[in-house]
């Protein structure tokens, strides 16, 4: 069960400690992370843990600190590439924290809930403000992490506050202002916060009006985005004064392929896993796109997708 873990000194002791905090069914050993990412990419995690409560999250963080073992938070893997060498130490996934509740015009959603489902809850309660999120595939935690947005809306427009766990395992409340939300960024990664829940303030609206907007945005997404293949969503941030997809298209890169990774023929801003791609294929294709666009237009494309993990050992 613990094959190959001697390289980082992991042993049954760590497994026993983790299963003292959360049930055994929530602790997976040598788990392939390609099973947990939208791109279907990624090597193995030494330990993948899926806590059920905020207290379990805190205790796992404190354990990692005490044992001086590497710790990584994995969202739902929608805007992420995990390298083929996997991730050492403890990887935490909050997919079990999915509660969504509404009180008046306020929605509180746990970090493992899909932001799409929060937008649907808003529709059910005739609350306006989250229509833009109806096609964003990420979790609530991931949406805060990168201040996710689409079609002119973004998380910072509706976020009031968030409950987080810090690097020491302390449970804190942070207002939206304290998270420094900006275009596809926040201070959550640099401060090492683990988002547990978010509180959104919305406004009363008309069910039919809200639904019409969401239906329109869903149609745009389905007609323009390559949903038929695994992908990590939009790969690059929008460069000032340009559109990343247009630059890639004008560089004649659509359809370009390395291994099983391909620049989408449907939307040039996406790279899809067309045929059992590896993370290495993906990363090499990203670099090829960046270099080609830079050489042709002098524009540096900055990645929106996050790359984590270790390179494979050859």
From TrEMBL:
Name listed for the protein in its UniProt record: UDP-N-acetylenolpyruvoylglucosamine reductase
Taxon lineage: Bacteria, Bacillati, Bacillota, Bacilli, Bacillales
Keywords from the UniProt entry: Cell cycle, Cell division, Cell shape, Cell wall biogenesis/degradation, Cytoplasm, FAD, Flavoprotein, NADP, Oxidoreductase, Peptidoglycan synthesis
Family membership noted in the UniProt record: Belongs to the MurB family.
Catalytic activity: UDP-N-acetyl-alpha-D-muramate + NADP(+) = UDP-N-acetyl-3-O-(1-carboxyvinyl)-alpha-D-glucosamine + NADPH + H(+)
Enzyme class: oxidoreductase
Subcellular location field: Cytoplasm
Cofactor: FAD
Gene3D superfamilies: 3.30.465.10, UDP-N-acetylenolpyruvoylglucosamine reductase, C-terminal domain, Uridine Diphospho-n-acetylenolpyruvylglucosamine Reductase, domain 2
Pfam families: FAD_binding_4, MurB_C
Main location: cytoplasm
Biological function: Cell wall formation.
Taxonomic source organism: Virgibacillus kapii
Its EC number(s): 1.3.1.98
Catalytic site positions: 184, 234, 304
Keyword check for Oxidoreductase: yes
Pathway involvement of the protein, from the record: Cell wall biogenesis; peptidoglycan biosynthesis
Alphabetical list of InterPro entries matching this protein: FAD-bd_PCMH, FAD-bd_PCMH-like_sf, FAD-bd_PCMH_sub1, FAD-bd_PCMH_sub2, MurB, MurB_C, MurB_C_sf, Oxid_FAD_bind_N
Domain FAD-binding PCMH-type residue range list: 41-205
